[in-house]
From TrEMBL:
Transmembrane segments: 34-57, 64-84, 96-118, 181-202, 214-234, 353-375, 381-401, 499-520, 532-552
UniProt-listed CDD domains: Delta9-FADS-like (cd03505)
Origin species: Manduca sexta (Tobacco hawkmoth)
InterPro entries per UniProt: Acyl-CoA_DS, FA_desaturase_dom, FADS-1_CS
Protein name according to UniProt: Fatty acid desaturase domain-containing protein
Family: Belongs to the fatty acid desaturase type 1 family.
BP term (GO), one: unsaturated fatty acid biosynthetic process
Keywords annotated in UniProt: Fatty acid biosynthesis, Fatty acid metabolism, Iron, Lipid biosynthesis, Lipid metabolism, Membrane, Metal-binding, Oxidoreductase, Transmembrane, Transmembrane helix
Record domain Fatty acid desaturase: where: 61-268, 379-586
GO molecular function: iron ion binding; stearoyl-CoA 9-desaturase activity
Entry superkingdom: Eukaryota
Length: 659
């Protein structure tokens, strides 16, 4: 049983596909032959897009804005994951369903057909920043950004293009279909449907719907164009200081990961198009990784770390690659959470908390009614708000109460602590102080009567029943000696505890109900029950870790304890279900194996704030310690996450299972 979400996807290549520059960098004087029709099109699109910004602020419905954003992302992915990484560079392979999806996404972006796009891009790499490069950056920002589309091609580009090998693209049936039916496809997918959908489904006016489509379109164009202009002019060159392409924050953010351009021009066949694996802004890589996980993408090529390091040393500009973030601070020994009493679930007489039973009953009935209203009545904006508040509440528990305060697995500056406290208040699972005490008891006396949600008492008790009865005397007794000084002295948590009732009432219930009523005229009935729905989902997802993740799953790290690796709990809690790992190494800020995992959004959240400097001293487990623990106490299942792109290649080999 292989518990990892994916496969080993890196297929290192030692030499770049031959893209030798046949002519030196140049921008010889030339007389431009203008394409006036293109100039008119671009002028109109941008004027209409600017008007779209005005309408987005003043008139457009939220659903229209959200649709425009989702279509922008889809179009960007069609260009980045499709035209660029799949077809232009062949950095991975895709099965037919994914090829069709990417072709449709690319059509939505309307940056010509994929066949034309790929030809231009291969010319750009083969003759980068010369007159044979279609968007030669040596001719200036405007030319490389958009001007090259308003003039006829340079004769050198036409000449060199005739000898370019495009046989793989010309013979691709999906791309041939797109080329053949380009006009009706582009018209329908890029412009007609994005305009009609808001008009039909939520009565948006044609004026708003059309100009929001234009806004989405010019965003898509200019985001992609930034790579040709900005990322060839301003930024760092950690890999090759002798070429124009740079590492650009702006281009990376706008294009979902394409702005690591110095890296990309050095290693164009790397499917990640970025440094050494994971990057916070590289959404395109996440997209490809997801489809690799489900089997639609395969043969993902990546540059070996030793090759990257050698290139940095040989030709880099000595600026730190990967935006300079080193966040791992390995610790060798776990903080002492010794179990002082053996596992047990002795017979006991429960003393019921009837008020809590009434609350939980009402919340769940109201939440179930909220599901009905979400399907039949609620506005999209209300549903989206509920989802965003669910994520915020979940992060407040996972990144805040759990990883920051309960386990001290990283440190947070005051602004992040305040943010996490507010997010935690949104989830309303008692105050952080109470939550942390319960959780430290859970780790110190796991699955015993001193564990507040002792899983040996069954699914219902560990899931929610423990909150409907008074504490076991053993839990009360042991809790008195638990060290909580760091938490009791935290001013942010003291504030939350002091003002818990007004704070939680406002953040968790009042505001989430009032906002939909005030801003988009949602009824109180719908707004309130959507708040209840969001709240019970928050409760039950976190509760899954206490119940499901202590009963069903694999135990790669310690077969002698109850906690397991559980898919359901991991997905529901944004990364907390790698529970066998977490109980073996509770101080690891990732709460999961070896860095990146596709379902571990909480780790991404912490990594982002480490990147901007609000989180620091992130603690991780050394790989050799992991290996020793698996060999000593694991149940023989593979690493859940083996092949993760943050793993060292020699460590991947050391954990291979040979039959």
């Amino acid at each position: 049983m292989a518990p990892n979400f994916g496969t080993e996807m890196s297929a290192p290549i030692d030499a770049e596909e031959s893209y030798e520059k046949l002519i030196p960098p140049q921008a010889a004087p030339r007389k431009y032959k203008y394409l006036y029709a293109n100039m008119i099109y671009f002028a109109y699109w941008h004027i209409a897009g600017l008007y779209g910004i005005y309408l987005a602020i003043t008139s457009a419905k939220w659903a229209t804005i959200i649709l425009a954003y989702l279509l922008f992302v889809a179009g960007d992915i069609g260009v980045t994951a499709g035209a660029h990484r799949l077809w232009a560079h062949k950095s991975y392979k895709a099965k037919l369903p994914l090829q069709i999806l990417l072709m449709l996404f690319s059509t939505m972006a309307f940056q010509n057909t994929v066949i034309t796009w790929v030809k231009d891009h291969r010319m750009h790499h083969k003759y980068s920043d010369t007159d044979a490069d279609p968007h030669n950056a040596t001719r200036g920002f405007f030319y490389s950004h958009v001007g090259w589309l308003m003039v006829k091609r340079h004769p050198e580009a036409i000449k060199r293009g005739k000898s370019l090998d495009m046989s793989d693209i010309y013979n691709n049936p999906v791309l041939k279909f797109q080329k053949k039916y380009a006009i009706p496809l582009v018209t329908t997918i890029a412009f007609v449907l994005p305009t009609i959908i808001p008009m039909y489904f939520w009565d948006e006016s044609f004026n708003v719907a059309w100009h929001m489509t234009m806004l989405k379109y010019i965003f898509g164009l200019n985001a992609a164009f930034l790579v040709n202009s900005v990322a060839h002019m301003w930024g760092y060159k950690p890999y090759d200081k002798n070429i124009a392409p740079t590492q650009s924050y702006i281009a990376t953010f706008a294009t979902l990961g394409e702005g690591f351009h110095n890296y990309h021009h050095v290693f164009p066949w790397d499917y990640r198009a970025s440094e050494l694996g994971d990057n916070y802004l590289n959404f395109t890589t996440k997209f490809i990784d997801f489809f690799a996980w489900i089997g639609w993408a395969y043969d993902l090529k990546a540059a070996p770390e030793d090759l990257v390091q050698k290139r940095i040393e040989r030709t880099g500009d000595e600026m730190a690659p990967n935006f300079g973030n080193e966040v791992s601070s390995p610790i060798v020994a776990e903080e002492s959470y010794e179990k002082l009493i053996p596992p047990q679930a002795a017979p006991r007489k429960y003393k019921y908390l009837y008020a809590n039973m009434i609350y939980f009953t009402y919340w769940h009935i109201a939440g179930l009614y909220g599901i009905y209203l979400a399907i039949t009545t609620a506005k999209w904006a209300t549903i989206i708000l509920a989802y965003l508040l669910f994520v915020a509440g979940e992060i407040g528990i996972t990144a805040g109460a759990h990883r920051l305060w309960a386990h001290k697995s990283y440190k947070a500056k005051l602004p992040l602590q305040i943010l996490l406290m507010l997010f935690n208040s949104t989830a309303f699972q008692n105050s952080v102080i109470t939550w942390v005490k319960d959780h430290r008891m859970h780790h110190k006396y796991s699955d015993t009567d001193a564990d507040p949600h002792n899983a040996t008492r069954g699914f219902f008790y560990s899931h929610v029943g423990w909150l409907m009865v008074k504490r076991h005397p053993e839990a009360i007794k042991r809790g008195k000696s638990l060290d909580m000084s760091d938490i009791y002295n935290n001013p942010v948590l003291k504030f939350q505890k002091k003002y818990a009732i007004p704070l939680i009432t406002t953040v968790a219930f009042v505001l989430p109900t009032i906002i939909p009523m005030y801003f988009w005229d949602e009824s109180f009935n719908v707004a309130w029950h959507m708040t209840m729905l969001r709240y019970i989902i928050n409760l039950n997802t976190i509760f899954l870790v206490n119940s499901v993740a202590h009963m069903w799953g694999y135990k790669p790290y310690d077969k002698n304890i109850a906690p397991t690796q559980n898919y359901i709990a991991t997905f529901a809690t944004l990364g907390e279900g790698f529970h066998n790992y977490h109980h073996a190494f509770p101080w690891d800020y990732r709460a999961s194996e070896l860095g990146n995992n596709y379902l571990n959004l909480t780790t991404k959240f912490i990594d982002f704030f480490a990147w901007i400097g609000w989180a620091y001293d992130l603690k991780t487990v050394p790989e050799d310690l992991l290996q020793k623990r698996m060999e000593r106490t694991g149940d023989g299942t593979n690493l859940w996450g083996r092949g993760d792109k943050n793993m060292k290649k020699d460590y991947v080999k050391s954990t291979d299972v040979h039959e």
